[in-house]
């Protein structure tokens, strides 16, 4: 079993998990590097980059500042200095936030297995592939976060006020005063977040405000029934997800 910062691995060992072998990833060269890809079209975040390093990375602050600012809100400083990006994703905990933010940005995981090297999978699709990833001895090397096209402004907005039961992220790319593409992600309701592209390409930012409620409602309606148990009022999470998403859309429009 791979062990990065060890926060989840050690907690699970306290609960009885007994892996036959633990492999510490800390010494692997560049496992924590955060850099611009050679083609300058993506930021590569090493699997072992700590949350604090992501939040304070000069490269991310220069190229994807919203991601650094959102990541800064994860956990407390003790956890941020120890927990890693891949550990956050691969712990498969519904309340963890890495998969929400990275799915919204269209990031991919670059990984190897016992019989392949350099495979890639979109973070938003990883939920379906997780079991086979672990069966094949998957090891994540890095995350690849694509950059927006030249002339396009990218925003990532995020509401974690109801974490861990619900988190909502919105990524929106704009150019010339209109939306190029947008994606909403809802975390906390399933083992892996629900991501959905919003049909607002071509809409002028000045018109987005008026469409916010309808767009948010129809996105949330596509979400499969939550699988993470919830003991409060029925449909509360779905109703609130729609309200929070609508607020994020209006914030961009403003
Ligand atoms: C008190 C507390 C508060 C927290 N608050 C938040 C919060 O607000 N938001 C949030 O998102 N998270 C939060 N967390 C979770 C925290 O972010 C994760 O526990 C942390 O990121 C896990 O990283 P790690 O490196 O310690 O993982 P590890 O424990 O080392 O690994 C976790 C899992 O990932 C696998 N793994 C790790 N690296 C790799 C790799 N490169 N390839 C393949 N498999 C790998 C391991 O085998 C294991 O299954 C909190 C945790 C605690 C204890």
Automatic annotation (TrEMBL):
Domain FAD-binding PCMH-type: start-end pairs: 1-150
PANTHER family assigned to the protein according to its UniProt record, in alphabetical order: XANTHINE DEHYDROGENASE SUBUNIT C-RELATED (PTHR42659:SF2)
Annotated InterPro entries: CO_DH_flav_C_dom_sf, Diverse_Substr_Oxidored, FAD-bd_PCMH, FAD-bd_PCMH-like_sf, FAD-bd_PCMH_sub2, Mopterin_DH_FAD-bd
Entry keywords, A to Z: FAD, Flavoprotein, Oxidoreductase
Entry coiled-coil feature ranges: none
Protein name: FAD-binding PCMH-type domain-containing protein
Superkingdom field: Bacteria
Organism: Tardiphaga robiniae
Family matches, as Gene3D superfamilies: 3.30.465.10, CO dehydrogenase flavoprotein, C-terminal domain (3.30.390.50)
MF annotations from Gene Ontology: FAD binding; oxidoreductase activity
């Amino acid at each position: 079993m791979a062990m990065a910062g060890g926060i989840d691995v050690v907690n699970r060992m306290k609960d009885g998990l007994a892996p036959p072998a633990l492999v510490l990833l800390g010494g692997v060269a560049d496992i924590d590097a955060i850099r611009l890809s050679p083609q300058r079209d993506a930021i590569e975040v090493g699997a072992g980059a700590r949350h604090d390093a992501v939040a304070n990375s000069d490269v991310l602050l220069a190229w994807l500042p919203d991601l650094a600012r959102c990541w800064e809100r994860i956990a407390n400083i003790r956890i941020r200095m120890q927990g890693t990006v891949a550990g956050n994703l691969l712990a498969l905990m519904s309340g963890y936030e890495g998969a929400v933010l990275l799915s919204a940005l269209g990031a991919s995981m670059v990984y190897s297995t016992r019989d392949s090297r350099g495979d890639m999978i979109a973070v938003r699709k990883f939920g379906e592939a997780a079991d086979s990833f672990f069966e094949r001895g998957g090891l994540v090397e890095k995350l690849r976060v694509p950059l927006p096209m030249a002339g396009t402004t990218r925003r990532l907005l995020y509401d974690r006020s109801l974490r861990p039961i619900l988190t909502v992220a919105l990524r929106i790319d704009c150019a010339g005063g209109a939306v190029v593409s947008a994606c909403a992600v809802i975390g906390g309701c399933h083992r892996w977040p629900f991501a959905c592209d919003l049909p607002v390409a071509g809409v002028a930012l000045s018109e987005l405000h008026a469409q916010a409620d309808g767009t948010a409602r129809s996105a949330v309606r596509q979400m499969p029934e939550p699988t993470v148990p919830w003991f409060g009022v029925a449909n509360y999470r779905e109703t609130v997800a729609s309200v929070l998403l609508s607020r994020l859309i209006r914030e961009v429009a403003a």
